[in-house]
Amino acid sequence: MFKKVLFVAGLSFLAACNTSIDNKKNLDNNFVTYVNPMIGTSKMGHTFPGATAPFGMVQLSPQTNFEVMHIDGKYNPKTYEYCAGYQYRDSTILGFAHTNFSGTGHADLGDFLVMPTTGKLVLDPIVTKDGGKGFYSRFSHEKEHAEAGYYTVDLEDYKIKAELTATERVGFHQYSFPESSDAHIILDLVYNVYQHDNKNVWTFIRVENDSLITGYRQTKGWARTKKVFFAMQFSKPFKSYGHKKYDKILYNGFYGRFNETKNFPEMAGKNIRAYFNFDTKANEKIQVKFALSPVSTQGALNNLKEEISGWDFEKTKNETQAKWNQELSKIEIETIDPAQKETFYTALYHTMLSPILYEDVDGKYRGLDQNIHESNGFTNYTIFSLWDTYRALHPLFNVIQQERNNDMIKSMLAHQKESVHNMLPIWSHYANENWCMIGYHATSVIADAIAKGVGNFDKKQALKASVTTANVRYFDGIGDYLDYQYVPDDKSHSSVSKTLEYAYDDWTIAQIAKSVGDTETEKIFLERSEYYNNVFNPKNGYMSPRMSDGSFRKNFDPLDTHGQGFIEGNAWNYGLYVPHQLDKMVALMGGKERFSQHLDSLFTMELEDKFIDQHEDITRDGIIGNYVHGNEPGHHIPYLYNWTGKAYKTQARVRMIMDTMYGPGVEGLCGNDDAGQMSAWYVFSSLGFYPVIPGSDHYALGSPLVKNAILNLENGNRLTIKTLNQSKNNIYVKSLTINGKQIDRNYILHNEIMNGGEFIFEMSATPKL
Predict the structure, then answer these.
(1) Which stretch of DSSP H or E encloses residue 502?
(2) Is the pLDDT of residue 69 over 70?
(3) Which stretches of 351-420 are DSSP H helices?
(4) What is the value of pTM for the model shown?
């Protein structure tokens, strides 16, 4: 139904690739060819197709949100569809922005929109004051192409071919113009993803010379005070320039009557669009290098100088794709279906789009306190969507990105030091805490790393930061949680979800305490980890909202996702969240047989539309019965049959989800990717195991989708995974051997992965009862 993007890598790229496998293995090693950045760009996948380096600060990507572009301050309900600035259904491009979220459930960023045009200069993106056409351009998907680290599209209205690539801190544009005496490159500092007229606090542009400009923008969007600095360099001098200011704020003695001032070297105001004019020959290429910095324009200039020294676009593209190839080569797979390989490597690619690098080449970064800090002994990262990513993304990093995850934890500890609340990050980006979603899940990320022997961060400091975070009474019901030993529903929204998540996080803190020998703290938080019991209602058999007087809420509907004590879920699915004490939860809910029947019903029952109406994060595309795979609270649920003595049902459910909820097309994600969590679920599940209990060294077994896999680990070891009799119908695990030893349990251990060797799954069409 949709165009599948195919990739062909040139010989120059093959020469540039330097992978860890040294071209010696029997599997393909040009992994970039299997990445399709268009996957998830339709509907609610919220991914972007543009160019970026692994974990790069720059995400240079087209912006197509024509329908929601406005500056009237009114919320447009379609904004949610454009969290990444792009929707595949669109046929118009507004330009190319340098910062974009990947797969999040909130809109922000979209900094520094660049758009090449020809003909009469137009500075309005959609429509001019006299009703004329704005500077947007039509495009077609037949003339659009995306690869890891590269994006190209033909701008039909201007007969310009746009090509994009990027290093970690620099976006590299290449525009092939037609012959023109009126060629322009517009720099739009008004545009934002999720635009409203008060988002910009201030913008500034300085013309340094005839081919270099610098500046910055400060916004107050989801990140309440975000500053991004830039340096923009052209490959040829512009013949003239100017700008239009869309406000009448006094600056340097000049009012709005200078809105279209030409040849003024400094431009400032809340909303500014600048333009740079050129003469071009037929098919002449004008290149733009655009560096970002969280610190200063000088920082951006330094980043520009260090990361791209010349004007060789192909060289930069090849180097970035070689970096992608190096990262993707950490897991080599064979599949029975080529489409599965594309789905897998795109998922793996999506797990490396955030968190992002957030420091200049000299190690300086803007901290949560808005002061400038210098990283010491670590690399600073930002974009921590922790309610999502603690579940599988960070556990995946503990297998294939251990050094980076260590730096991410150190970044979280720096965040806590810089926080006026003394809290670890909840949902943070660009030196801002957004307080989005519930729980304090940085503790889980820390505990999981400790359980798996990852990192050299200070564990005692991490424990202190975790304990402090878990005792900030004024944050999101924690005070009531401590006083009542649950979150009362009449005092806080999402009370049951908060109680369950807090109890789990408290267990992770107990694990951190145990690792440093702090038995007193371990005991305190183990006791707190039992508080989930206090929201279980034995009369109805569900985790249920409880009032401050001790009674359970009346008129409670366990199917409804609206206002029933749960956030983005209901009692049927979110009520199954006790990962740290699953055996006790199963017993609490009636024992293994009854709980297994509950899971059966969850996957097969009909859920009426009224229970999910007007719910942005729960859509029909991601639902199987009443199980919601398109949202994170239930990602562990398919694996829970392992705790009922019916592991074969886990194997069947997991395989079915991989086959139906993921795919190689633009609609290949059944919900927004949530900063890589959805994709991390697929990566783990494809290999045959999943971290149901982050903070432990256990992985629950599932049903591997791969035919063969090799994990090239940072410690130098190599794990080979083989599946015998793999096929579409052979979804059940008949046996598993690890290094020749038969495994008669439904989990594997982290050290069994990291020690390398060989896993052999024997598959069958018949379940092992």
Answers:
(1) helix 495-515
(2) no
(3) 386-389, 393-400, 402-418
(4) 0.94
